[in-house]
TrEMBL record:
Domain HPr: 10-70
Record SUPFAM superfamilies: HPr-like (SSF55594)
Keywords (A to Z) from UniProt: Sugar transport, Transport
Protein name: PTS sugar transporter
Domain of life: Bacteria
Keyword Ribonucleoprotein attached: no
Name of one Pfam family that matches: PTS-HPr
Length: 80
């Protein structure tokens, strides 16, 4: 699980650089990506996540978050 901890911290740190709202949707739950606690309780590599980003820097935020997810081997799709 330690690699998951690194993923959680890096995802939250990356998200906090942006002003956009960044939310993951997984199994009827919505998780604020800027919340380390929320990520810790829901981030499991076997799950698939849908990314919702809204705000002035949404495109940059999406790209950055997707990169971190890929780096840690987590599955993510982007909501349209």
């Amino acid at each position: 699980m330690s690699n998951n901890n690194a993923a959680v911290v890096e995802i939250a740190q990356t998200a906090s650089k942006f002003t956009s709202s960044i939310v993951l949707h997984s199994e009827n739950k919505y998780i604020d990506v800027k919340s380390i606690l929320g990520l810790f309780t829901t981030l499991v590599s076997s799950h698939s996540y849908e990314l919702h980003v809204h705000g002035p820097d949404a495109e940059e935020a999406k790209e950055a978050i997707i990169e971190v997810f890929k780096k840690h081997g987590l599955h993510i799709s982007v909501a349209t």
